[in-house]
């Protein structure tokens, strides 16, 4: 079963990782560390149940694509460790190579590791730059014992957390020296303050490490890396009393043939079919990254406006007054400044972070084909009004989820008007243009509003409510012109749906417009909040409007 996604440890850990590492080091049982070389492999290792991880130099340099010869700088290693620490909760033992220099480099390393939450470091008694132990091991030069002890002492003096461990790695067997040299070095490192000895061997049998452990006994914990003597039963290590066994490179070695095979197959077959069943679905990557935690956090922290909001754009009518311009396309697709009207409307919503948009089509539906939109058709557009189109849209699942914005397909507006609509938390909100005189002399009908009070500076702090919306409201009751923008809260959406469906089913409302709906809402006791603004919108009804829209900036 898939593990629960988890944010890299936002809660305080019960115990410091350094303390847990020290406990593992001193536990009477043989404990296991798995290699990890980046954040995702570290998380995979922890999920598999490893109580601690080995940030190995070989695999970390390999994942960077460089050699295990200090080609990656120690700060690059540190950067990667930070990701690994963030991706996990278990202690990480860094393979710190030789300590990246002398005593001074080691003490700075220790401080930095503590700051980044790394539990422990292992340093080996060779010279900088190091070479991997399995490459010409016997040609490798060991560090001077006293000089290496100065690295250990400086590291121990530098640590601020008493539980931070410095493991010292004895390379005497690797370099072709015998048991006596290994013991002499281990003794000196122990005296210098080392917390445990990693005894390394490149033999195919555990002969050397077992001989060391017999002589060393329990002076301090002993760590092994059985890469070459892999065939040895684990029971042998347990009986010998080793403290930690490190599986030092196996995640990367497992990944390499999988990647090689995948790459070769894709290069050969030039399609994904045969590979799909052999790779994890991308959702497994998301899980390992903790993507669902981020989604929950977005719900907690991000402003809701726009994220779940839906839009219905009513674009069913032809717009006959535009003549030839709408012979082959509906009005919503007439171009203004090189873009269909509808594209301007979509852009305004998108700019406000709203992307779930359903367009109701009627006249020449195939001509409305902008990408990324949902479409609902009203085939009866020619003898029905906007209310029926809205009813069709509200019956579609796309309009469910968050607040709903209703817009006309021939009204363009400045994006800030959406913020104006979004701000009040009321169930129904409309914007009304106080400069209604701009429409008075035009031939088309306008939707006027009558409100609880007219616009005035004194009304700035007061909430204004709709009392009626109609084409025939005369002055002085005419307080503004409705711009055709309506916001309905997610809470009120079921009520709107029921009302619209009921009205649309009534033949008396077959040609009803949206102002009928607004007036009906008020008649039913719903409060429709009115926000007064001035200008910054344009409805496109005539050729003169098309020209004016071209100048709309
Ligand atoms: C590593 O994993 O980087 C080690 C172990 O140091 S070994 O490769 O065996 O040297
Ligand atoms: Mg190494």
Question: Can you walk me through this structure?
Answer:
- The chain is elongated.
- The longest helix has 20 residues, at 250-269.
- The protein has 553 residues and is of the alpha/beta class.
- Strand 6, helix 8 (207-216) and strand 7 (222-224) form a beta-alpha-beta unit.
- The chain folds into 3 domains: 16-249, TIM Barrel (Alpha-Beta Barrel), CATH 3.20.20.60; 258-299, no CATH class; 310-549, Spore Coat Polysaccharide Biosynthesis Protein SpsA, Chain A (Alpha-Beta Complex).
- Residues 1-5 have low confidence and may be disordered.
- The strands form 4 sheets. The protein has an 8-stranded parallel β-barrel, surrounded by 9 helices.
- 37% of the residues lie in helices and 18% in strands.
- The two termini are 56 Å apart.
- The protein has 20 helices and 21 strands.
- The structure holds sulfopyruvate (SPV) and magnesium ion.
- Sulfopyruvate binds next to helix 3.
CATH top level label of the largest domain: Alpha Beta
Task: Predict the CATH topology of the largest domain.
Answer: Spore Coat Polysaccharide Biosynthesis Protein SpsA, Chain A
For the largest beta-sheet, the strand count, sense and barrel status come to: 8 strands, parallel, barrel
What ligands does this structure carry?
sulfopyruvate, magnesium ion
Order of strands, main sheet, comes to 1-2-3-4-5-6-7-8
Show unreliable segments: 1-5
Q: What is the CA-atom radius of gyration, in angstroms? A: 36 Å
User: What spatial form do the alpha-carbon principal axes imply?
Assistant: elongated
Structural class determined from secondary elements: alpha/beta
**How many DSSP E strands?**
21
User: What's the architecture of the largest domain, going by CATH?
Assistant: Alpha-Beta Complex
Mean pLDDT: 91
CATH superfamily of the largest domain: Spore Coat Polysaccharide Biosynthesis Protein SpsA, Chain A
Cα end-to-end separation: 56 Å
Share of β-strand residues: 15-25%
The total count of helices amounts to 20
Q: How many structural domains? A: 3
Q: Helicity level, as a percent range? A: 25-40%
